[in-house]
Amino acid sequence: MTRRTLRTSRAARWAIAPIILLLLLLLTHDWWLSAIGEYLVQAGPPAHSDLVVVLAGDWTGNRILKAAELVREGYAPKALVSGPGKLYNVHEDDAAIDYAVDHGYPRDYFIAAHNDSNSTRSEAIALLRDMRRMGVHSADIVTSDFHTHRAGGVYRKLAGGIQIHMVAAPYPDFNPGSWWRYRQGEKTVLLEWTKTVAYWFGI
After folding, report:
1. Which of 95, 110, 137, 199 has the fewest CB atoms found within 10 Å of its own CB?
2. Do the Cβ atoms of 150 and 192 come closer than 8 Å?
């Protein structure tokens, strides 16, 4: 075989390699796309704790209702509800608590926690400060399922001696096994992965 033939053969192999890789990606796309979605979810069953904590950022009502359910079932005596900022002059914690009350839960299940946070990390700093002031040693942190991995990492890093249990509330626009099949799922995963990578780099 001549040098020219060898060069041609090598060039052909290099040209074919991306095609083979693309075919493999297409054939296995359900597996690796599911893995991308499942990575975002890192939660377990609730544990009996001093407090349930509801993170802000959910306008479906699922986080507050999950927290209310945990209090009703005796996992903790109260739920601390985060409420940064205002929407139409209403703090999110006030709106969330009203929503739970409308769904039959007693108002005294909840403690409103107004704060000025604008990220998961700044919210964690504010809520952990409240928890330490309350003498909390363990907490069930309730957030949307797609948010549990990143939020769990943030809270465990900052919690000090407070034991953290991440509890997932369902989010209608996210299914780890099929998120790429509908636009809202794609948007949810893209945004959460953007935030996850930013968290890795300390941004």
Report:
1. 137
2. yes
